[in-house]
Amino acid sequence: MSEESHPEIRDAVRALCKGFAGDYWRALDRERTYPTEFVKALTDAGFLAVLIPEEFGGSGLGISEAAAILGEIHQSGGNGGACHAQMYIMGTVLRHGSDDQKREILPKIAAGELRLQAFGVTEPTSGTDTSRIRTTAEKDGDDYVITGQKVWTSRAEHSDLMLVLARTSPRDDGGDDGAKPHDGMSVFIIDMQEAQKSGLTIKPLRAMINHATTEIFFDNLRVSARNMVGEEGKGFRYLLDGLNAERILISAEAIGDARWFIEKACNYSNERIVFDRPIGQNQGIQFPIARAHAQTEAADLMLKQAIKLFDAGKPCGPQANMAKLLAADASWAAADMCLQTHGGFGFAEEYDIERKFRETRLFQVAPISTNLILSYIAEHVLGLPRSF
């Protein structure tokens, strides 16, 4: 096995996760409920404030430490999807918010007094073509009035604040100044409790995995202009600014999943006796496990490269995207291998494999489809013509 980064952090996370074993996650999955106790424990331990600067009450550490935290949660059999967004969403406020916004929000997030877990971007009609979102924010005096709809917005019911991407000018309102389709979008901070009293409706969406995802409707929601993050019309740039961090952290989760599946498969293969011998003695069992391990370690090397560049403040788009692609493929291959290794027992709830199998499948689709990553690599790394 490769040497783990930040062993002291991983040991602490592993110890915390022991208090939230498989039966805890199975019960939540069965009832489709949110892991409130788990998120509180992570918050109290300071793990969710790892990327917040010390001046705002956080740990002031890098993406490497954040990746170690989320990777270990998944390697321990848990799921960081309930709270991982807080780590990278707050970066939008940190890098582009006003001084007042940072002083008001970041210390409260670090202290666990506020949760910033949701970012409303995707819409039913636009999908991954963010330039075609229809949610609008029209200026009205000192306020903006937001109207529209978002979908697959996870954790909205469990977040005190939410960021929303909305159009403040039409997509084709570029004139002759060279404006691009992604110009004209802005980011707003929404107070969820207040908004639900005056124009915001949250509708839970039951899905294949327990990810607390929702559909959100904005019906003339009035938001103060002070709640805009950064400059009007530059919201998509702010969104892109946080994508490398998102890719890196999701990659760490996928690699954590893969290692969990590999460990489960190895343990079972050593213990399961068929025809008077452990099934792990058969190459038909050995080879898929070994291949999954090789894929996982290769993905981890790309992840480490992306982390090194990110923490050094250097461009890392290709590396972050390739890490996400390779990690998602590795976790899915390991999941399939683990289920096959366990045979019928892999479908039993008590083994946790079927739950993790469903959960890790998400990485092929979200937060970005593997096909879009391939398009990115083709165009921006290999210089091939844009395909869409």
What does this structure look like?
By secondary structure, this protein is an alpha+beta fold. It folds into 3 domains: 105 residues, Butyryl-Coa Dehydrogenase, subunit A, domain 1, CATH 1.10.540; 121 residues, Butyryl-CoA Dehydrogenase, subunit A, domain 2; 140 residues, Butyryl-CoA Dehydrogenase, subunit A, domain 3 (Up-down Bundle). The chain is built from 13 helices and 10 strands. The protein has a 4-stranded mixed beta sheet. The chain has a 4-stranded antiparallel beta sheet with strand order 2-3-7-6, with no helix packed on it. A two-stranded antiparallel ribbon has the order 9-10. The longest helix has 29 residues.
